[in-house]
Amino acid sequence: MSKSADHAMEVHERLLAHYGEPQQKPQRPPLDELVLTILSQNTNDSNSGRAWETLRSRFPNWKAVYEADVEEVAEAIRVGGLANTKAPRIQGILDHLREERGELDMSFMHDMSVDEAREYLLDLPGVGQKTAACVLLFSLHKPAMPVDTHVHRVSLRLELVPVKTSAEKAHQALEALLPAEIYYPFHLNMIRHGRTLCTARDPQCDACPLSDICPYAQKRSAEHADGESE
Predict the structure, then answer these.
(1) Which domains does the chain have, with CATH numbers?
(2) Active site residue 219
(3) What is the model's pTM?
(4) pLDDT reading at 158 higher than 60
(5) From 130, 142, 169, 219, active-site residue
(6) What is the DSSP letter of 59?
(7) How does pLDDT run across 83-100, given as a tens digit for each residue?
C-alpha cells in the first residue's frame, strides 16, 4: 500500500471512530435516484427533499412527468432551486429513455458493468460525474465515489488529492486511492465531516480528529503561532 493509500485509510478509520458506521440509505430504483440527485444539484438536502416530495405527489408516475408541460414540472420542483434548468433536464432524460428503451425505467442498468453504467449515465442530459456516481453507489450498489463540495474540500485540505484537483477529476483520484468496499462509508463520513467540523468557513481544526495528519490544519496552526509571536 502506498503512502497516499495509507494516509487515506488512516483518514477513513479515524472518521469511522469519530462518526461511526453510516446507516445504509434506502435503495431507490435507478431512475428515482437519478431524478432525486438532479434535484439535489446546487441546493441543500431539505430543499431537494421537498422538491422530490412535491414532484411525486403532483405526478402519479414518470409517464405523467414526461407528458406534462415543462412549466408544470418546473413549478412542482421550484422549492429546490434552478427549476427552469432541472425540469427540462428531467424531461430530457425521460424522453431519452422513451426513445431508446420504449419505457420509463432504468432497471436494465443493474446488469451493466460499473464502467458501462457510468458511461450510459454520463451520456444523459445534465448528468455529470457526481450525479452518475450517486446513482451507481446508492441505487445500483456499484463501486463509485461521489464527490460533492464537502468531499472535495476535505480531500483537498487533507491532500488526499493533489492541490487544485477539480471535483470532476477527484472522483477518479479517490476511487483509485481507496478500496471499493469502503467507498460508501468514506463518502458519507466525509460529507458529515465537511458539514460539522471541516466547514468552508471557520473550520474547527482544534476539535478535529484529523488535525495532526491534516496539512491544512497544521498550516493554520503555524500561521496562528506566528501571528501571536509578532
Answers:
(1) 3-23+146-220 (1.10.1670.10), 30-139 (1.10.340.30)
(2) no
(3) 0.93
(4) yes
(5) 130
(6) S
(7) 999 999 999 999 999 999
